[in-house]
């Protein structure tokens, strides 16, 4: 399946970043596959087995049969407190995800697409910005989603490719963090100043620094929490005390910013 293998590589190399103008994608360490083995074209990527069933949700977007690919993002700017996020965001809101829809942004000039997820968010509270948004729904465009080899432009590059190869579906998720699903209660720090090359034909907001500005309510802890690395796993894999110290520092940053965001919402009640 030559087209499939090259498709995986091109997804990493050619994808755009919405909400990540201050970050870059790394083509290493984070590829996963659910249906077939990767060959030497992505041999340097670490393989992780994920079960598609774990990603099945009532989202209106079916992940069944998709090859799961983790994109690794390297951020030029890391947001470590709410003051930073409030400063750079156009609006900051708390709300509930009521619907999602897969969306592929196609760039005619280069002949390939990039997968995103359209997220409809009902606003419950406005932390920063237009307070008239309370009770209304806004549209977010979130990094990650479904895309086929055909939508990645492989039909033009490989005219002899079989239809089943071109129709193969891939599910891209940044750093292992899947897009929002209906029912998620989130705090979002958002921007509406999208780069000129992203012309969708509809109005939307996007997360600042991808998932760095997204906090999901955790019923078990009662806190809004930002998607983060599996710190326990990282500590187990650490080889030096310095590495462990750096990981523990990151853990503390995450704890503190989660508390700050939670307190922001509690103060509004």
Question: What can you see in these coordinates?
Answer:
With 269 residues, this protein is an alpha+beta fold. The chain is built from 6 helices and 11 strands. The protein has one domain. The strands form 2 sheets. Strands 3, 4, 5, 8, 9, 10 and 11 form a 7-stranded antiparallel β-sheet that branches. A 4-stranded mixed β-sheet has the order 1-2-7-6, covered by helices on one side. Strand 10 and strand 11 form a beta hairpin. It is globular and about 60 Å long. The termini are far apart.
Largest sheet, in brief, is:
7 strands, antiparallel
Beta-strand percent range: 25-35%
Count of helix runs? 6
Q: Which spans have pLDDT < 50 for at least 5 consecutive residues?
A: 1-60
Shape: globular
Give helix % range.
10-25%
Domain module count: 1
Number of strands: 11
**N- and C-termini, Cα separation:** 55 Å
Oligomer: single chain
Q: What is the chain-wise order of helices and strands?
A: HEEHEEEEHHEEEEEHH
Average pLDDT value?
Answer: 76
Round the Cα radius of gyration to an integer and report it: 19 Å
**What class, by secondary structure content?**
alpha+beta
């Amino acid at each position: 399946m030559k087209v499939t293998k090259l498709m995986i590589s091109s997804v990493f190399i050619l994808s755009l970043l919405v909400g990540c103008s201050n970050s870059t994608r790394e083509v290493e360490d984070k590829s996963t596959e659910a249906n077939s083995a990767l060959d030497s074209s992505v041999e340097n990527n670490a393989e992780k087995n994920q079960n598609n069933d774990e990603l099945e949700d009532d989202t209106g977007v079916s992940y069944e049969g998709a090859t799961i690919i983790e994109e690794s993002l390297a951020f030029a700017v890391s947001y470590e407190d709410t003051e930073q996020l409030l400063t750079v965001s156009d609006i900051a809101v708390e709300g509930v995800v009521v619907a999602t829809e897969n969306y592929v942004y196609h760039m005619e000039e280069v002949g390939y697409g990039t997968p995103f997820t359209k997220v409809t968010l009902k606003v419950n509270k406005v932390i920063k910005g237009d307070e008239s948004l309370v009770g209304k729904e806004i549209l977010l465009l979130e990094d990650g989603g479904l895309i086929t080899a055909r939508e990645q432009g492989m039909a033009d590059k490989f005219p002899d490719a079989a239809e089943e190869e071109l129709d193969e579906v891939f599910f891209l998720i940044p750093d292992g963090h899947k897009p929002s699903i209906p029912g998620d209660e989130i705090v979002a720090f958002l921007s509406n100043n999208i780069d000129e090359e992203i012309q969708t034909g509809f109005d939307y907001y996007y997360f600042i620094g991808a998932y760095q500005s997204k906090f999901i309510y955790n019923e078990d802890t009662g806190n809004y929490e930002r998607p983060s690395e599996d710190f326990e796993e990282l500590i187990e894999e650490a080889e030096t005390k310095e590495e462990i110290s750096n990981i523990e520092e990151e853990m503390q940053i995450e704890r503190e910013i989660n508390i700050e965001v939670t307190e922001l919402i509690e103060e509004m009640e």
